[in-house]
Design a protein that fits this description.
heterodimer, A: 126 residues, alpha+beta, OB fold (Dihydrolipoamide Acetyltransferase, E2P), 6-stranded antiparallel sheet, 3-stranded antiparallel sheet, globular, B: 431 residues, Alpha-Beta Plaits, Elongation Factor Tu (Ef-tu), domain 3, 3 domains, 6-stranded mixed sheet, 5-stranded antiparallel sheet, 27% strand
């Protein structure tokens, strides 16, 4: 059983989203890190990058595979978590503290198309 | 519908993450992950289920005359290999010199040979071998002079790999792991049990021998202890053990009947061999610079391009692929190591300036070097004429990332996610 915090929302591509004012933080879910295995590489797009829903905002790689993170919203990257590149393994140990980017939204509201914790739990078949 | 190997239940019990590979359900990793399994093989001992590998048996008076025509390597010393029981690596080519498969030859006897082929190619190999046999057979060859059989599903194969492999086997033989030796056993049996470890420890790299399955599994046995090729049959009670593997480490591979595989597997695990999946198998062989069919060898890549010249005998009498192999290749397989954090993957373009000069055939994060490594097929014009003087991957991987890499290092960047990432040519194997 993976950890799925109630207060977050989730994308079909296994990103978690946290909303604070008009900022969202985005990372990968516990389920995603578990499926990927030991992560050995992580990078996030730099601050200042404008993003649209579905655009790549970062990448993670395990020994065997590479995988991208996609923006859940329209906005501009306000901050990028540089510490991930030096210690990608922190994503395995604490996926919900390991945010990749903060995106500034036009409005202080959840982006469209995200799942609640309960919906995501069903989505991943748990 | 994917096939289960005889060890399918063992994999589930060990929480193997099962995937379909070449038509078989196999674990890509177990619960500790690829890195832990990889390092266990490098430092201790690991255990792989390689039962998916195919076995094709060629037999009859014309066996080696035919194989000499079928395969691109020299079989000039085959008599010696039969006598000393030594397996040989070979590439089987199509007429154009590209690879149909790479395989291991077990020369069992002057009239019988076992070919170990890649799981994904079993059907294609069998068809190719039969077609070549039809073309090669002259009117004076009787059916009894050459027979081709595919008993792949009657063999299980286990690979025990790592520097502690022999210690694992010693533990089993001395009764420290696996079933306890019953007190009723004769002194002769106990002695035989230790003798088989001595027999395996005497094997040189690539040598093989036969063991009674009962002795290996610690069951009572009063048959002969020195077995011959004639005792070795699919589904029988003889195990073929060779000092071979696909990891670059010492180790042993066991060919045995499927029903007995789970017990041997459990004994080896109990004696300290860590189960390892396809993920670690791939990172280990890549670090060891070994080709994987479909990546470094294929119907578009020749063994010369793959740098396997030492396994080729271009000047022998006619063989399949000879004309194609005589042409000077324009591409060469090279080893590349990351000078930064980037991890290369199969298919990524290799750059020289703003030109694409090749592509990665296999790439991974190397758990031993903590760096991205790749085998890549590149234009010969983009690399030095010989690899003498190339630095080792270990040296390059240990360089601090802020040094000036231009001095004495031949860089060949790889395009990753639209960026040109710094990589350097290195010697292979990578470790």
């Amino acid at each position: 059983m993976s950890n799925i915090p109630q207060e977050l929302r989730y994308a079909k591509t296994h990103e978690w989203v946290q909303l604070t004012g008009n900022l969202i933080r985005v990372g990968i879910t516990d389920h995603a890190q578990c499926e990927l295995g030991d992560l050995v590489f992580a990078e996030a797009k730099p601050a200042g990058t404008p993003v649209k829903p579905g655009q790549v905002i970062g990448s993670v790689e395990s020994v065997k595979t590479a995988s991208d993170l996609y923006s859940p919203a329209d906005g501009v990257i306000a901050a990028s978590n540089a510490s991930l590149a030096d210690q990608p393994e922190q994503i395995n140990t604490d996926p919900y503290a390991s945010w990749f980017v903060e995106i500034e939204l036009a409005a202080a509201d959840w982006p469209a198309g995200l799942m609640t914790a309960a919906e995501y739990k069903t989505f991943i078949g748990e | 519908m994917a096939e289960q190997t005889p060890l399918y239940r063992e994999h589930l019990q060990l929480s193997g993450k099962m995937v379909e590979f070449a038509g078989f359900l196999l674990p890509v990793q177990y619960s500790d992950g690829i890195s832990a399994e990889h390092l266990a093989v490098r430092q201790n001992a690991g255990l792989f289920d390689v039962s998916h590998m195919g076995e094709i048996e060629v037999s009859g008076e014309q066996t080696y005359a035919f194989l000499d025509y079928l395969l691109s390597r020299s079989l000039a010393k085959i008599d010696q290999a039969i006598t000393s029981r030594r397996a040989l690596y070979a590439v089987m080519c199509a007429a154009d010199g590209t690879a149909v498969d790479d395989l291991l030859i077990y020369p069992l006897s002057p009239t019988r040979c076992l070919l170990i082929v890649n799981a994904a190619n079993i059907a294609a190999d069998e068809a190719h071998i039969r077609a070549v046999a039809d073309e090669w057979a002259r009117v004076d060859i009787l059916p009894a002079d050459l027979a081709i059989d595919n008993p792949s599903d009657r063999w299980a194969q286990l690979a025990l790999q790592g520097p502690q492999s022999l210690q694992v086997l010693t533990k089993i033989a001395s009764g420290l792991a696996g079933p306890a030796v019953p007190s009723t056993l004769t002194a002769r049996f106990a002695a035989d049990r230790l003798a088989w470890v001595a027999q395996l420890s005497a094997l040189k790299k690539y040598q093989f021998t036969y063991l009674p399955l009962a002795l290996l599994l610690g069951e009572s046995y009063d048959g002969p202890t020195h077995l011959m090729a004639d005792d070795f049959e699919a589904g029988g009670t003889t195990v073929l053990v060779s000092r071979t593997g696909y990891t670059g480490e010492d180790g042993f591979e066991f060919y045995l009947r499927p029903e007995a595989a789970p017990l041997l597997w459990r004994m080896l695990v109990a004696a300290g061999a860590k189960p390892a999946g396809l993920g670690a198998r791939d990172t280990l062989r890549l670090e060891a610079g070994m080709p994987l069919y479909g990546h470094e060898l294929s119907r578009t890549i020749t063994p010369r391009e793959a740098g396997l010249d030492r396994f080729l005998a271009l000047d022998k009498a006619s063989f399949v692929g000879q004309a194609g192999l005589l042409a000077e290749p324009s591409r060469q397989l090279v080893g590349l190591v990351s000078l930064g954090k980037a991890i290369p993957r199969a298919g990524y373009p290799v750059l020289s300036g703003d030109q694409v000069v090749g592509a990665v055939t296999s790439g991974t994060f190397s758990p031993s070097l903590n760096k991205g490594i790749a085998l890549a097929l590149v234009e010969r014009t983009a690399i030095p004429a010989d690899d003498l003087g190339l630095p080792s991957a270990g040296y390059l991987a240990a360089l601090p990332s802020d040094v000036d890499h231009t001095a004495g290092i031949h860089t060949l960047p790889i395009e990753i996610r639209g960026r040109s990432e710094p990589f350097a040519l290195c010697l292979t194997p990578f470790i």
